[in-house]
Amino acid sequence: MRDLFIRKDMAPTVSLLYSAVEENRLRLASIVSRMTHRELYDKGCCQTKNSTAQLLQHIANVDIRWVWRIKENRVPDHIEDIYGPMTDESGRLPEPKNQPGLEELLTRHQHVVNELKSVCKTLTENDLHQTLSYEGDKATVRWGIWHMADHNRYHQAHIEALKKEWKQDIIKNAR
């Protein structure tokens, strides 16, 4: 039976939200688990799509920013330096520097989820109502954690489409 795990070291709603993030992290790792380096960096037949590597980096980048918003209600400069910009000069998702492998990209995201876990252990039910700055607007901590899970799942669909196109291209080129 599938369910979201309610942890004893977190407030119930916090735990539910964290479990959704963790569930999607595990699902994402499963989806990409057998990708080759070439497939990881493939941008589709016309080379115009974001690669799976770009999407994995993007997910970690967005998530670490949410963790820091929740921790301190701001993203410190050193996080900007480590994770880089959200977009490149052309407004697209940046390429991961030095083309890291799948394990490194997944480890980076696991680190972010571990950071979230530490923060979630300190949150109370009332903390979920706290407002944070988000893209010139406001969002609650509750919405931010939910958004991390939702955003991950959203890009999983893009990765699945890339995988399908990759397989079709392999079959077409094998003929």
Give an overview of the whole structure:
- The structure is a single chain.
- With 175 residues, the chain is mainly alpha-helical.
- The protein has one domain (12-174): Four Helix Bundle (Hemerythrin (Met), subunit A).
- The chain contains six helices and two strands, in the order αααααββα.
- The protein has helices spanning 12-32, 37-40, 52-72, 77-83, 102-120, 141-174, and strands at residues 131-134, 137-140.
- The protein has a two-stranded antiparallel ribbon with strand order 1-2.
- A hairpin with a 2-residue loop joins β1 and β2.
- α1 packs parallel to α6 (141-174).
- It is globular and about 60 Å long.
- The mean pLDDT is 93.
Condensed summary:
This protein is mainly alpha-helical. It has helices at residues 12-32, 37-40, 52-72, 77-83, 102-120, 141-174, and strands at 131-134, 137-140.
Short descriptors:
175 residues; mainly alpha; Four Helix Bundle (Hemerythrin (Met), subunit A); DinB/YfiT-like; DinB-like; YkkA
What percent strand? under 5%
The helix content, as a percent range, equals: 55-70%
The largest sheet, given as strand count, sense and whether it forms a barrel, is:
2 strands, antiparallel
Low-confidence blocks of residues = none
- Total E-strand runs: 2
Strands in their spatial order, largest beta sheet: 1-2
Named CATH architecture: Up-down Bundle
Number of domains: 1
Q: What is the radius of gyration?
A: 17 Å
Separation of termini?
A: 42 Å
SSE topology:
Blueprint: H1 12-32, H2 37-40, H3 52-72, H4 77-83, H5 102-120, E1 131-134, E2 137-140, H6 141-174
Antiparallel strand pairs: 1-2
